[in-house]
Design goal:
326 residues; TIM Barrel; 37% helix; 11 helices; alpha/beta
């Protein structure tokens, strides 16, 4: 396994912070300054990405995961909604981005498949967690009638048609480029949101995804917080199932309390999942890719969340030591 972290900023202080925690692998999002077209669209800039890699190496950091742009009207938005006039060009942009990542030795490209984004990241709702720390929460009853920007009524059948069309074109390119694609399950994992019937919100959905396009490049970012908040789902069973099939290509190692329709995020050691047992399962199935925290609470005086990020990274590092992975 590879202990990792997201790069929140492209600057010296951020690189030093991560390196000082003993982290050597990072994930970045395809932000505007890295994309050829404005609005996080087009293809990733190969030169910019190469320059960033060279900078990171001076801090003993390796760029391991590139996250495709996710937000409304970004790189492959029309592919998601099934707009036939634009989706093929967008999918080719994704394919070229994957080729560039493969050519630069970046082994994992993460992607998502949703239209409506009303979880805490876009519509922040907070309550207090352990010791009064702020934690985000999701309550379906509070957002069921919301229609944020870009909302489109979409049936599950149409969503599946669109995602299969996308995968059939992208996965062969990823195989040739030596890149593993890691799709993030729907967060929050509701069956419907903002008029969209969501197709990556259950264990069965996840099984169907890899069966529809059975490529060795086609796998998951197992976001444990998302999987743990799926109703009636055993997180350890999900890890075993996809780990034994070598379909876990990335991991957000985080914890939550509760499941849909209402759950809240937590400190890594304060949720419903036994994180030591989870780490043992990853070790048992031979998982060898990046293991990183994701959403973390806001502690007093820590608006940048660096203290809570450090806490989560230290906890992951300790668990990796326990199972013999560090």
């Amino acid at each position: 396994m590879k202990l990792g972290s997201r790069l929140n900023l492209f600057e010296d202080e951020e690189y030093r912070f991560i390196a000082q925690l003993g982290v050597h692998h990072v994930a970045i999002h395809g932000r505007e300054e890295l994309m050829v077209e404005a609005g996080e669209r087009g293809v990733v800039k190969a030169d910019q990405l190469r320059n960033l890699q060279e900078t990171l190496r001076s801090y003993e950091l390796e760029l391991y995961v590139f996250v495709l742009p996710q937000r409304y009207n970004t790189q492959y938005w029309h592919a998601r909604v099934g707009d036939g006039t634009l989706r093929d060009k967008e999918i080719e942009d994704v394919c070229e981005t994957v080729r560039i990542c493969g050519g630069l030795g970046i082994p994992v490209v993460e992607w998502t498949w949703y239209i409506t984004r009303v979880c805490g990241r876009a519509y922040p709702r907070y309550e207090t967690g352990r010791g009064g720390a702020l934690v985000s929460f999701f309550d379906y009853n509070l957002v069921r009638d919301e229609r944020p920007e870009g909302t489109i009524e979409m049936s599950a059948e149409r969503m599946w048609d669109n995602i299969i069309y996308f995968m059939e074109r992208v996965m062969p390119v990823a195989e040739q480029a030596g890149v593993r694609m890691a799709v993030h399950p729907n967060d929050p994992p509701t069956q419907e949101l903002g008029g969209e019937e969501r197709v990556l919100s259950t264990f069965d959905d996840m099984k169907r995804l890899v069966a529809e396009v059975d490529s060795p490049a086609n796998g998951f970012n197992i976001c444990q917080g998302t999987v743990a908040s799926m109703a009636d789902t055993d997180v350890l069973e999900v890890i075993r199932y996809f780990g034994r099939r070598d379909r876990i290509n990335h991991c957000h190692f985080r914890n939550v309390t509760g499941t849909v329709p209402r759950f809240k995020e937590s400190f890594i050691d304060d949720g419903d999942v036994d994180m030591l047992e989870a780490m043992k399962v990853y070790q048992q199935v031979g998982y060898q890719h990046m293991m990183m925290p994701d959403h973390v609470p806001t502690m007093d005086g820590d608006e940048t969340r660096r203290v809570s990020r450090a806490y989560a990274i230290g906890y992951i590092r300790a668990l990796m030591h326990v199972v013999g992975e560090l």
